[in-house]
Specification:
Strand content: 15-25%
Helix content: 25-40%
CATH class: Alpha Beta
Number of helices: 9
CATH topology: Rossmann fold
Number of strands: 7
Order of helices and strands: EHHHHHEHEEHEHEHE
Structural class: alpha/beta
Length: about 210
């Protein structure tokens, strides 16, 4: 029986990449999006790509970051799926290589039990181009999942994970139910459930 569900945020619980929305404000969406694509498909180290992309956001007003973070388009079926899993007695959390401004707000909006992500460094009301947090590396999601499983006494067989990109691979290694959602090929190869439509509620028919 499943007891824990872990969802990626960008392009999984949310329809798009948070950092691309920030980059659009500076007129560099295409440049940032290209780096994101390289990282999510596994061609670029996640840590290096995150540092590179956040560095390009230096000088952006934090008030704009917060406004964008609180108006992101959630994936169709996200709230419905989280509610359904919780009604089955599962804990539902979010692991994101993205940012706390977005995931903490989404936690309340979508009814998640917890969120783990990164924090953008801010000074004098503007982004400094620096970032730190729980989800900085390729191995971060798997590492955090193992720790949560240990604390909650939950096995991989009792764990569902759902994501779309290469930085979700590490958590796939510690879960019996592995969902690739509108995902890159590198993740599909390790999944035992593949969903190709942008509707998270389709997951409920598979478990």
């Amino acid at each position: 029986m499943l007891k824990l569900a872990v969802f990626d945020f960008d392009s999984t619980l949310m329809d798009g990449e948070t950092i691309d929305f920030f980059a659009e404000e500076l007129g560099i969406r295409e440049e940032v999006s290209k780096i994101t694509e390289e990282a999510m498909s596994g061609r670029l180290d996640f840590f290096e790509s995150l540092q590179q992309r956040v560095g390009l956001l230096k000088g952006l007003d934090f008030s704009i970051v917060e406004k964008i973070s609180h108006n992101l388009p959630y994936m169709p079926g996200a709230r419905e799926t989280i509610d359904a899993l919780k009604s089955r007695g599962m804990k539902v959390v979010c692991f994101s290589g993205g940012f706390r401004t977005a995931t903490s707000y989404a936690k309340d909006m979508l009814g998640l039990d917890a969120d783990f992500s990164n924090a953008l460094h801010v000074k004098d009301g503007k982004l400094t181009g620096l970032v730190g947090g729980d989800m900085m590396f390729n191995f971060s999601k798997g590492d955090m999942l193992e720790r949560i499983q240990s604390v909650m006494d939950i096995t991989p067989q009792e764990t569902l994970v759902c994501g779309d990109g290469a930085n979700d691979l590490s958590m796939f290694a510690h879960a019996g139910t592995r969902v690739a959602f509108c995902a890159h090929d590198i993740l599909k190869k390790e999944a035992n459930i593949i969903i190709e439509e942008k509707d998270l509620s389709l997951l409920l028919k598979e478990i």
